[in-house]
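I can't quite decide. Please look over this sequence plus structure tokens:

:::
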Amino acid sequence: MPTFDPGWLPLAVGSVPHADPGEAWAAVLRYLPATPFWPQLPRRSFLENMYAQYSEGFPGVVIEDERIYVDRRQDLDPAMERLYLAYLEDDVAYGAISAEYAAGLAALREGGVVLPQSPLLIKGQVTGPVSWGLTVVDQERRPLLYDEVLADAIAKHLRLKAAWQEQAIAPYAPLTVTFVDEPYLSAFGSAFVAVSREQVIAYLHEVLAGIQGLKGVHCCGNTDWSMLLETPIDILNLDAYEYAEALALYPREVTSFLERGGAIAWGIVPASQAAEDETAEHLVERLHEAIGLLAHKGVPQEALLQRGFVTPSCGTGSLSVPLAERVLALTGQVARMMRGRYVHQEEQTP
């Protein structure tokens, strides 16, 4: 695990509602200049939908009429062989994401964005194998995750996507953070998700193994947090605005995670209409209440106060532009207040 001090820095989930990459980057750098993320722009194109965005190059994939699926009537063997050869040879170039699929990332790489002189880190994101495999279906609308061969291919495909992306953003900051976004894990254990705990952990292990810098998992609903804490992540990102009490059900696992150097990214800023009426002061109060739930269960409070980031509860791609920018502004404000309280003055960033 890379050595790092989270120091209550702000991070964000990837999607924003802007359609223009320049306008999106302007917002990112206005509110999170020291910890920027490359913005996903789902309103610009369906290709930037979080499932389509990482589909480029997957065997048999078809995108048409704002639908994504894999046509298994094709002969998938040649494409599967290319994928597995790239995986075995660690050919990261196979995972390249073109400008058509990620205009925000392309704007950075092509020189259309000027970052601050010394950002502390830069963040990227990739859709997780469980969510991708349950959302992307075959021509008969059967989720790919339920096919053992294709499920394994998904994990290897996304591993290469994550590795290529990390290499693409690494020149822009001394530290990279890559989140694996798994919204569908909120349905884990229900009748709607027929996948075992062991499968989830194995698929996540595969993708995370392609990430050399800091790696995290984001889930914007409730899930079995002990399962995620078994994976080799550095950062656990949850919706702490709605689901903080659920994490408190796992005090032993959280304590072990913090002891091995992990950090919690508290999604305390609601990525919803609720942000209109929230203030940074009230969100700091809610954050302390969330921390208190864990401390009450025996998780060392000092560790909780030392190993934290501040984030929105989820991506802002479905919001209006003004509301999304309010969410980013609140995230920066809450982070500054927490840093002012818990980070020594000489360690604070401008």
Observations:
- The chain has a mean pLDDT of 94.
- The CA atoms of residues 140 and 326 lie 41 Å apart.
